[in-house]
Description:
By secondary structure, this protein is an alpha/beta fold. Helix content is 46%, strand content 13%.
Amino acid sequence: MQENGTIFIADCDVKSRDLVSAFLTYKGYGITVAEVGTSFFDTLQKNNVDIVIADLAYLQSIAPDFEERSSMINPLMVLIGYSEASSDEHKKTSDDIFTIPKPINLDELESLVMRAREYQSMKLYDNSAGGSSQFQLLSATMIGTSPPMRALFEMISKVATSKATVLIQGESGTGKELAARAIHQLSDRHARNFVPVNCAAIPDDLLESELFGHVKGSFTGAYANRIGRFEMADRGTLFLDEIGDMKANLQVKLLRVLQNREFEPVGASKSQKVDVRIIAATNKNLEELVISRDFREDLYYRLSVIPIVIPPLRERREDIPVLIHTFLTRFNADKRHAVKGFSRDSLAILCNYEWPGNVRELENLVERLVILKGSGLIVPDDLPEKYLSGKISHPVSVQSPGLPSDNLLPEGGICLNSAVDEFENNLIMQALARSGGNKKEAALLLNLKRTTLIEKLKKKNLAFSED
């Protein structure tokens, strides 16, 4: 199944074409190959593609005006064998054309394709929004309108314009990589590479080579030179996810890069300068790891120049309905299903759940429900058992104060502000009564933070018993 987008490959060198096709297919891209003898532009017009990867000499031989003609079809182009490209740096000739030299380094090609797709996504969003503000761009990337998310958007907007190292902290599934990508996209490095590395997913003995690259013959299996993620991210952004899992020997080498802006590939005899902005992320408490000596204190302070904390989903429950709607729309389209939505009771149950897996858990649940349900409305019986454990057995039935039972507006009118305030007071007191005065449980019933509930009680001067 296609995961990452559709790419059209055109190259008269069949071996090179098949190598690139096999590599990008393995990486999850949908591939269309231009067969020798077929019309390049006819094939391009008949297929809906995101990116064209083509040999420059081949395109120049079939159409000297290929740039103008391809711009009318509007794909992004990656040109192979661009004569002005050096061996260690990509050139960008225009907004919609990216270049890479021959012979092709597949790691560099993948990085370039990722950058082209990021550029394309931003361009499409800007065109559809008519020139979006930073908040619009952030809300398109990270879903949420709650106060914690608005505060996060404001912090990201401020941080993006600086060159400082950022440490993003938050539980698993909260969207730390999305925040890192948003910082990159809003920075002056957005036209360069955003290179992610999961430090916990790569074996310790391979992580150094993955980060810094290696020279041929430096260890068994090093049959050729290979550039590392730092070099790929030169003048761009390197995202080090799960930094808390990095071993001590690599922590020392990372500290040197942060201090001196240079590194040594494995087996190399000299250092290389690099201009990289580092964004690190972790779901662990690095301060505790520093105390236990599992993480270097000097590295911690180098990384946390600007700390950002992503709020867990249980602290922004008001975002759950909009997240569900977004995921439902996407999975209905992907699976070609027609689930209409969630019933009020099922939505209330999900808003009452603690979400230990955060947004990722919610996304996975919606996908599962769309697949299993197929159509119709999702009701509580459709939810897995664990989500029903917190189900409210006696739902609150609240009557708006000052209104008759049919909720019609009285003939003489009503003071809206007073009615809304009394309505809120009524809900708060019912929640406290049901929880036996326990403010934490009452706050959960109201989908509020405990501190928010206490502030409301003080502001409204409502009587309540201490718990």
